[in-house]
Amino acid sequence: MISAEQVLNSQFKPTRFSAGYEQDEVDDFLDRVVATLRQAETGQQTGNPLRSDEVTSVRFATTKLREGYDQSQVDALLDEVVATIEHHRGRGAL
Question: What does the pLDDT look like over 2-16, one tens digit per residue?
């Protein structure tokens, strides 16, 4: 499982000359992930939490000639997020 704090502090290797994910899009989505995980961790309703299928279906624009986030690192983090959301849903926290 991954915590909201771990997602908040995640850092990804930047890409420059290979395909990467658009940084602002990833950052905005991870803000929603953090809010969802905090809601599960604290029990306080903070809005509409993400579902695991929303995480698995998210698509980010890619970059090629400007800096982006390493795709495999972002994808690995999102896999952890999916497992964590499923865990929290299973125990009724989301």
Answer: 999 999 999 999 998
How many separate domains does the chain show? 1
Q: Per residue in 14-48, pLDDT tens?
A: 998 889 999 999 999 999 999 999 999 998 887 88
Q: What is the distance between the alpha carbons of residues 94 and 92, in angstroms, rounded to a whole number?
A: 6
Which domain, by its residues, includes 46?
4-90
Q: What is the pTM of this model?
A: 0.93
49: left (phi over 0), alpha (psi -120 to 50) or beta: beta
Contact status, residue 24 vs residue 59, Cβ threshold 8 Å: no
30 CB neighbour count, 10 Å cutoff: 17
